[in-house]
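Protein modeling request. Please complete all fields; requests missing the sequence field cannot be processed.
Requester role: graduate student
Desired output: 3D structure, token encoding
Chains: 1
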Amino acid sequence: MRYPPDKVETIQVIEMSVSADRQALAGAPPVALTADGRLLSTMPNRLGYLSPTDASVGVEAIRRLFATQGYVWLKGLLPRGEVIDFRGWVLSHLAESGLLKPGTDPSLGIASEGVIDRRLAERRLMSVVRSTGYEGFCAQPRLSRLMDAFVGGLSYLHKRKIMRFTLPGTATVTPAHYDLVYLRGGTSRVVTAWIPIGDASIDMGGLLYLEGSHAIGTAMEAQFAKENSALDPQERISAYNRNMSEGGWVSKDLPEMAERFDTRWLMADFEAGDIVLHSPYMIHASTTNQSRERLIRLSTDIRYQNVDDEIDARWGNHWSLDDML
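Delivered output (325 residues):
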């Protein structure tokens, strides 16, 4: 794509700024990162940092970075105070389960050291993701205007939207995957927005992205499409998911994946107000929450596409923990 001189100059400035930010962030992670019992911090050459982008750069620059990197980490797109207030609202609805340290501000998200009724917390979470308050947060004008511009038309926000809380001191992680595995009933032109609801520092186990893996995911899709071309659409969806979980290229062993593809896992200290847009082919995962302050990591991932593209009907229902997607 050819850009007018003013756009070229803008993009060059952005890329120079990104390079400078990456150098400033260089250094070892603050904790020994682990996922599924495997240490990532023993392989410093396989770790790096995400490149931040100013949220005001404009949609053309965002598209350029998205195509090049497979992600765009937009700093401060949302008002920080509003995100922290929303964090408090969400966690206050889960507090009856014993999730929070007694007497603390819910917006801090300090985990209880006592017994937590996990099932009750999850039931409350299912209520939250069906609420108008959560819908309003996901559909707020700043996000909808950005996504309209990004998809080049009216954006469609999938009804199936996911929210996760991750407690410190537990082994819970998001295993490595790329999103198209779960979205093959519609267009491949889907964009995920991952939003930390509150600060999510590296020690809290925020998302990691496998550098350059949007190209790896594209190659996987091409191979699986060829191998399963004779199956009907429903069988093809099931076969893809089975291939990904049973000996497929995506593995729970994050260090092994970085070695196999000769690349790095990229991490970041996310702040309230940040969002990350990532490609449906971009491989990502999370690490365990090791917050010394016992902070709960709270986040949501929502997906957009152009409303005129084919929509995966399975994503037309509210998310539930047992929906098998």
